[in-house]
Design brief:
Helices cover 41% and strands 17% of the residues. By secondary structure, the chain is α/β, with parallel strands linked by helices. The protein has 2 domains: 87 residues, Leucine Dehydrogenase, chain A, domain 1 (Rossmann fold, 3-Layer(aba) Sandwich); 122 residues, NAD(P)-binding Rossmann-like Domain (Rossmann fold), CATH 3.40.50.720. The structure holds NADP nicotinamide-adenine-dinucleotide phosphate. The site of NADP nicotinamide-adenine-dinucleotide phosphate has 25 residues, from helix 10.
Length: 271
């Protein structure tokens, strides 16, 4: 069975809309250069903002901006009281250190939950904002009534935005987590062991049917594009057909991720 994110997104949207009625919110998006995939993501954010009444300010900066200039731009936004959240659109040009720049955002305005302060709160299991994509994965499982507690959760991909924080969040949900990456010795053995398999690799159709059991639940985080611009996940369609439950791509986790960004904005506004 394929599962989708639209209804979940709409519920979060309504929650954010109600929060904006209580207290105005404004998100600043810092965009360096003109990466086409990041422009599409920003358009999605603007649509969601329009539906919820959140104000958005896009700060376009040149591709060759110096690091110290970017720091100054972020600092200005940190001090604007009406701006309640700041997002730094990645990937950044190679001469800029994304992690360093994210840590220049005031942690109280860190809508992506990627500032070291907020990641520290995640590790120590204090309430607060969480990285949007892992949060979307957990939200999706809960919305479909799929238990995590006690389950063997195998995550393929250990990035600091998706797989890494997700492993901590799944552990906090009492899953038993195996975090795999490109140096994992026998990946197939790990994926076959999974009750819940999360694919966050960035390689089209990477997870093939021989790598999963029939009773597995699969969450496919991957977003890959072919030359015609069609979107594919990291999990092959035949693998999804074999699984008990699998999330769709497109229309799955990605749809919820933008909503979770705004849910973080709501949480920051209420802190
Ligand atoms: P990333 O930073 O490139 O990380 C990819 C991870 O996959 C790394 O940990 C890498 O291992 C691992 N990997 C690569 N090849 C592997 C292999 N052959 N076997 C096992 N592991 C392997 O990517 P990301 O930012 O986490 O994104 C992952 C995917 O999710 C991408 O398709 C991205 O577009 C998508 N994404 C979707 C959303 C959404 O909302 N749906 C949001 C964010 C990202 P090493 O660490 O050893 O290199």
């Amino acid at each position: 069975m394929l599962i989708y994110g639209k209804e979940i997104r709409d519920k979060i949207k309504e929650r954010v809309r109600q929060a904006v009625l209580r207290k105005p919110m404004k998100m600043a998006i810092v965009q360096v250069g003109e990466d086409p995939s990041s422009l599409a993501y920003v358009r999605g954010i603007c649509r969601f903002a329009g539906d919820t009444g959140v104000e958005v300010e896009i700060v376009n900066l040149p591709e060759d901006i110096e690091e110290n200039e970017l720091v100054k731009e972020i600092d200005v936004l940190n001090h604007v009281p009406t701006i309640t959240g700041i997002m730094l659109q990645t990937p950044l040009p190679a001469h800029l250190d994304a992690n360093k720049m994210i840590n220049c955002i005031s942690y109280g305005k860190d809508v992506e939950g990627l500032h070291n302060y907020n990641l520290g709160k995640l590790l120590s299991r204090q309430e607060g904002v969480r990285p949007a994509t892992p949060k979307a994965v957990i939200t999706m499982l809960k919305a479909y009534g799929i238990p995590i507690e006690g389950e063997k959760v195998t995550i393929v991909g250990r990035s600091t935005t998706v797989g890494g924080p997700l492993s901590v969040m799944m552990t906090a949900e009492n899953g038993t987590v195996t975090l795999c990456h490109s140096r994992t010795r026998d990946l197939k053995r790990e994926t076959l062991d999974a009750d819940i398999l999360v694919a966050a690799i960035g390689k089209k159709n990477f997870i093939t049917p021989d790598m999963v059991r029939e009773d597995v639940v699969i969450i496919d985080v991957g977003t890959n594009f072919d030359e015609a611009g069609r979107m594919f996940g990291d999990v092959h369609e035949e693998t999804k057909a074999k699984a008990r439950i699998a999330s769709a791509v497109p229309g799955g986790v990605g749809v919820i991720t933008v909503a979770e960004l705004f849910d973080n904005l709501r949480i920051l506004g209420e802190q």
